[in-house]
Amino acid sequence: MIETPDGFALHTGWFDRAAQHALALEILNRIARSPLYQPSMPRTGKPLSVTMTNLGPLGWMTDKQGGYRYQSRHPVTDEPWPDIPEILLALWEAVSGWPEPPQACLVNWYGPDARMGLHVDADEDAKTAPVVSVSLGNSARFRLGGPTRKGSTRSLRLNSGDVVVLGGESRRFHHGVDRIYAGSSTLLPPDWRPGRLNLTLRRVN
Ligand code: MD3
Ligand code: FE
Question: Which one of 108, 109, 127, 138 would you pick to mutate in the ligand 1 pocket, going by the greatest count of ligand atoms within 8 A of its CB?
Fold first, then answer.
């Protein structure tokens, strides 16, 4: 485990292989009902390379018209988001230090060439609650900066089963995903596409 004074913690191998497998099945079952869709940047409409869906009462989304926001329904099916699996609620209780349960679980799917540029998560009114992240499937090169856009960054490899907690000041740090390491995990079933799943648990309000 790596912990820094700014509230960042990386729990490497939090979930063992069996737990990763059970969690992946729970997520893939929910994706079957609440499919991954391709979000677009506000104003420009440029599609993100990451596809997304959500679990829980609220879900984060973005499109050309409405911009970044939380809403209670899937933008394509118009159905409420599926529930957050119990294993993730238990994880939140164990590592977040926050008294209330998460309101949103953003599910990010990275195919082999997907990236996420450096950004800050600032669409939540709950400004002091931590974010908890789980990585499943192929490994990623994750980049963590600081409170300003310029300034030094460090890069970390996130592997399947790793859990990251962004509390304190680190909650407002810039971060992104530089690349996905093809073939680095055999977790996801062979009839599923190759890539990486990232789950982020959040308080919204
Ligand atoms: C650091 N996801 O969904 S998870 C995102 O791997 C996002 O899919 C990345 O950035 C991914 O917004 C990174 C780890 C993470 C999540 C939230 C953070 C790191 C963070 C918020 C502040 C600082
Ligand atoms: Fe983020």
Answer: 108
- Could you read off the pLDDT of 159-194 as tens digits, one per residue? 999 999 999 999 999 999 999 999 999 999 999 999
For the segment 58-107, what is each residue's pLDDT rounded down to a tens digit?
999 999 999 999 999 999 999 999 999 999 999 999 999 999 999 999 99
106 lines ligand 1 (CB under 6 A): yes
Pocket of ligand 1 contains residue 116 by CB under 6 Å: yes
User: CB pairs under 8 A, 24+ apart, for 58-64?
Assistant: 58/103, 58/104, 58/204, 59/104, 59/106, 60/104, 60/106, 60/123, 60/202, 63/39, 64/40
**How big is the CA angle at 105 (ends 202 and 89), to the nearest 5 degrees?**
80
Q: What is the pTM of this model?
A: 0.98
Nearest ligand to residue 172 Cα = 1
| Ligand index nearest the alpha carbon of residue 131 | 1
Kindly give the distance from the C-alpha atom of residue 47 to the centroid of ligand 2, in angstroms, as a whole number: 16
Question: Could you give the ipTM of this predicted complex?
Answer: 0.97
Q: Where exactly are the structural domains of the chain?
A: 2-33+84-202
CATH of 2-33+84-202, one of 2.60.120.590, 3.40.50.450, 2.30.42.10, 3.30.1540.10: 2.60.120.590
